[in-house]
Amino acid sequence: MKKGEIIVVHPVFIKGDLVEKFREHLIEYPYYHIVHEGISHLESPIKKFSNIEIEGVINSFEKSDFPLACHAGSKSTEKFFDYHIALRYGKDKKEVFVYELIVREEKDRNIINGVLMAFYLLTLSRFGIEKMLVPYNLGDLGSIDDINIESIGDNLTLLTRH
Question: What residues pair up with 111 in beta bridges, in sequence order?
Answer without folding.
Answer: none
